[in-house]
Amino acid sequence: MSTNSASESSPLLGLSHDTNAAEDTPEDISPPRDLTNDIFAHLKAFNSIAYQSTRNSRSVTDGFNASAEYVIDKLNKTRCDVKLQHFKVPIWEKEKEAELNVTLGSGEIVTYQGGVDFWSMRYGGQAANLTFQNVTEVRNSCDREEEWDIEGKVALIQMNEKCDLWETAYKAEKSGASAVIFYNTPKQKKLSYSRVRIVDWKEGDPLMKIPVLAASNSMGQILINSQHINITTYTKLFIVDTFNVLCYLNGHGVNESSIVIGSHLDSVPAGPGLVDNASGSSTILEILLHLEKNRFKPQNRIIFAWWSAEEIGLLGSRHFVRELIKSGENVNVAMNLNFDMLGSPNYIPFVLRGSDAPIDARNGSIKIQHVLEKSFHKNRKHYNISDMLGGSDFLPFIKNGIPSGGLYTGSSEIKSRKSQQEFGGIANAPLDPCYHQECDSIENVSKEAISVTSRVIFESIIFFSSKKNLADFLNS
Ligand SMILES: [Zn+2]
């Protein structure tokens, strides 16, 4: 995510008449002093769940289910109507890097280095051992009707950002290719890290069977004139069942709407995912438990959501929104709040930028941004604005006309000198040096970041769930 300076924010815009605290916010519900410590108790639990898992992660195929059990156990002690929403996800694993050698026209054999000159692309098919394969270059014109004569051959295709990667690869497979190699344009220096798969994959949609590799431009040039090549890949592609954990808390208002408050509960396979995103998961869990302790009566219905499979393409939240639309219930969902990464060690508290939302969800998203900003002002805390374009579970909501917003404390963005003066921490270093890595453990979580963000989140949840005529407020 890219970042912008706080000067862009307009904290009070549009709020002067709307936020009547006396009317909307019950006086007796305020964030407890030990909120941060209580959130850390959940973080410790998630840390040990990861530690006890097979690969020290909470990914869909590793510690996710144990993480979900932990949340469900807490929810069962609340007034929540708890629902597990099951869906299917494709898992792609690479045991080790592919091997490839080329026999040139001269008869000379060149062995390329996996991970340097080429690699298996994510979601690019099953393990294969292909020998004496002929390579045919096909021009990628994005034309779906154009016929490719590549039966039994390796399709060599230059990267073309204008064409959809999945459609190109799948077309090659349907044309009978034995493998696909996408090679870089002369300008592209890095191997593509893209997934070869429609991003919003759902049960029943196809996946690649044949291997798909990404290669450097120079390797591509050599392959054009090769006699034949041998390829061995060590990948696995399979489908598993997973589920979102949902808690429905009834509203008591006359014109009630629903609010979806979500955090993804899965981590990447590479690490325990404490900042990303046990921090969001623990924060919304603890806030819910505190509201329960106080027998909080929201005006609007709250749906707390712990999404699965965010790290493999926002698949949990996409499934939820798809089902919501199918049932027609989307008209009752006024908004979404998304909390993904709240405890980055070198943090900057970011409020997601509402004006990034598509037109149908823009007005409401800007309103949500302003409410969050107002809470920062009230708490005398600084913040920046971050984009809300992609990369987390707000996306399926805003794409379907449901306003969204949220907080985020940063991942691989580098902290500027100016930001360091404003927020402390370390300049010229990433906001989270352990982002998507093994070291994203409990030691990686900033108590201060959790303290700052959880207070704002608490206040915003009270504000929105207590708001009478919430839909009108967001549309005004
Ligand atoms: Zn995340």
From TrEMBL:
It comes from the Eukaryota. This is 2410_t:CDS:1. It comes from Acaulospora colombiana.
